[in-house]
Write a structure and sequence with these properties.
Blueprint (H helix, E strand, L loop, with lengths): L29 H22 L3 E2 L11 H4 L3 E13 L4 E13 L6 H8 L5 E7 L1 H5 L3 E2 L5 H21 L4 E5 L7 H16 L5 E5 L7 H8 L12 H5 L5 E5 L17 E7 L9 H11 L8 E5 L8 H20 L2
Parallel strand pairs: 1-4, 3-5, 4-6, 6-7, 7-8, 8-9, 9-10
Antiparallel strand pairs: 2-3
This protein binds zinc ion (ZN).
């Protein structure tokens, strides 16, 4: 009960990549980079095991970016054709690659890295992939002319990729959909349908991570505009509860999300964000325990997975490590009293 997991990413060590950046450049290349990524992944697996995390990830240390690394393995995208585009309803602007033809996946993107990580641990492993709607909000389109149409095309590729990862031993496949917290009508019109297509037929736990983004400046400014109570999840949870997805995440640590919104997910397991992805401070186990207990006013402990609010890529390595330990210790505190 109250098994712990993390949203996905962990900081890349400073010998591997520029630290504390969302998309920091690699400091190694070729075979040395590959060996370095494997070493970093193994270190995080050991840290998660030692902290007492139950469902682990590779820390996403093989990726430079949670969406673009997957897209680099996809045909039909011109990586050189950069288009300037507003992301997450113009919260920030980025130069992104452009879809110029039908998308296809010539070979597995993440399988080899996953197989390596699978060989490192007996514990359950979650693998994260970008969700179809979030992909469509992170790439320019000069071919499909319709986001839902493009999302369905990406969902098919994600499903093919995910099936291989499950066959290789992934226990949980999680699709990251931060865009779900922005485009509420689209989520209900076609976002969940695309998500379900990506998750279709996977013989594992299927999860979706929805959040208010990494703790970067643009997101912090946006959060200031959201008012005292963040009720965005209310707009999408009813449809998610009716979907075939097994697990849904929400941010509870250091956020303005009213915990009662969890009542809208009576049929789901809930990843309760119990540590924030802030760079300057580690929550105490007691604070984590308090967040979990607050969630338990709305959700029975059998359906709660204490988790991080979001990915921890942009925060200092030692802070992330401290947060892992507090997360596991806080969950243990609550477990003792059940
Ligand atoms: Zn997130």
């Amino acid at each position: 009960m109250l098994e712990t997991t993390i949203a996905g990413s962990l900081p890349r060590p400073d010998w591997l990549a520029e630290p504390e950046k969302l998309k920091g450049d690699w400091k190694l290349s070729g075979e040395a980079l590959r060996a370095g990524q494997r070493r970093a992944a193994e270190e995080w697996i050991r840290h998660q095991e030692a902290a007492g995390i139950d469902i682990l990830t590779d820390g996403e240390v093989f990726r430079r970016h949670f969406v673009h690394t997957f897209l680099e393995g996809i045909d039909g995208i011109d990586q050189q054709r950069r288009t300037r585009m507003g992301i997450r309803d113009n919260r920030y602007e980025l130069e992104v690659p452009t879809v110029t033809g039908p998308v296809s996946r010539p070979r597995p993107v993440h399988l080899e890295d996953f197989e390596y990580v699978r060989s490192l641990t007996q514990r359950r492993l979650k693998f994260t992939l970008p969700g179809p709607m979030t992909i469509c909000d992170t790439i320019a389109d000069e071919y499909y002319g319709s986001r839902p149409k493009m999302a369905m095309a990406f969902a098919q590729l994600l499903n093919d990729e995910a099936r291989e990862l499950v066959a290789a031993g992934a226990d949980v496949i999680q699709f990251d959909e931060p865009a779900f917290n922005v485009f509420f009508d689209d989520v209900n019109d076609w976002g969940i349908e695309a998500l379900e297509m990506a998750a279709d037929g996977l013989d594992c736990i299927r999860a979706v991570h929805i959040c208010y983004g990494y703790g970067i400046e643009e997101n912090l400014r946006w959060k200031e505009t959201l008012g005292d109570e963040w009720r965005q999840y209310e707009r999408i949870f009813p449809a998610l509860n009716a979907s075939s997805i097994d697990q849904v995440s929400l941010e509870c640590a250091d956020s303005h999300v009213p915990h009662e919104v969890m009542s809208l997910l009576p049929d789901k397991t809930i990843m309760v964000g119990a540590v924030a992805v802030t760079p300057d401070r580690v929550e105490t186990p007691q604070e984590v325990a308090e967040t979990i207990r607050s969630a338990m006013r709305y959700v029975e402990p059998e359906r709660i997975l204490p988790c991080t609010n979001c990915g921890m890529t942009p925060i200092p390595y030692d802070i992330a490590l401290g947060k892992l330990r507090s997360l596991a210790a806080g969950a243990a505190l609550v477990r003792e009293t059940l």
